[in-house]
């Protein structure tokens, strides 16, 4: 590892060494469009700060810290980042390697150039009230290309939930063998632009629908499409709502070839809990993450997430769940949506298999085993209720001083399920599976932390 990389790692602990080397490679070679511009002295002016964000996909604050940490090697300039004489001297002798900021580079320069000209001619303006951040021309080309390469264009019905990136137009120009494209958008300016371009360019079978995803989807659009692509508001409410609408729009495949949602989501790598929440939502819907391509899409104006988003290619499975959504009106990031939390701090479920039948049918043993578990983990039982079911199944409800524990048995399947919620942290929680396995004489168990 180069010494300069090692030193920069000390002041930039959140970056990998290869990422640091990749940024230095960009600076050493003065890459980027703005670096080609000449200043008054005739030398190249360096990269604009925002351009470095777009090239790397790293958040604005992260690169701000990086820039400060190597200020002795940079010229003093608020708008640009460029090596000074000492920086050029130090890096010139190093065999720095470029970093693959994304593992997929797809699309065609010709289509990107066409989209650039269209953008220039249409003069569309981003509307922050709809969380619009226009993708780069190359990204629009890439969004169309990835649909095509995954077999989701030829002969397919395509739904686009929000099309400020003009993906419908890119598809119509480069990949015209789809059956139909329907653009759903809340912004009339986007819809009118798509309609006008489709007419002027002779793009076939592109329809537009003014639609606010917070309202019910008209029934005649349900179960109609083979693929949905969407770049929704980057809030958990926005993602959940748009996933729900996407599932409603898609044909429910009867085989394993699948119908798909192409979801774009961006977030700072310093807030992994937000990304984990999105992945939980995806799994809750029963969607399979077939591919995830980090930093696939690039934008302008979204510096807080590194001007980048990742592509999740989601496949509908036979286990799909169309979860009813009662959407709050606040789904956009500018509304400063706060995550609401329930007042419990621990929620676990346990599924036990191969439980001895005598354990499952004995009320006394079940109560004693739960009491033993609660004592081991300092959970106080204040009330107990037992309900009998057919085939000897039992449900036991234990009211705890800090919430509740529910237990149900299926003797015919040698199975037992426990749902535990508490309002205070559970004592010695890392050993709960061991305690329960011993109590119920079964070591075949699935444990899951819900919250």
UniProtKB/TrEMBL annotation:
Cofactor names from the entry are: pyruvate
Record flagged with keyword Lyase: yes
Q: Which SUPFAM superfamilies match?
A: S-adenosyl-L-methionine-dependent methyltransferases, S-adenosylmethionine decarboxylase
What Gene3D superfamilies does the database record attribute to this sequence? S-adenosylmethionine decarboxylase, Vaccinia Virus protein VP39
What's a single GO MF annotation on this record?
transferase activity
One GO term of the biological process aspect: spermidine biosynthetic process
Q: Could you tell me the keywords of this UniProt record? A: Autocatalytic cleavage, Decarboxylase, Lyase, Polyamine biosynthesis, Pyruvate, Schiff base, Spermidine biosynthesis, Zymogen
Cleaved signal peptide residues: none
| Domain N(4)-bis(aminopropyl)spermidine synthase C-terminal: residue ranges | 113-308
PANTHER family linked to this entry: RRNA N6-ADENOSINE-METHYLTRANSFERASE METTL5
Q: What is this protein called?
A: N(4)-bis(aminopropyl)spermidine synthase C-terminal domain-containing protein
Q: Which organism is it from?
A: candidate division WWE3 bacterium RIFCSPLOWO2_01_FULL_37_15
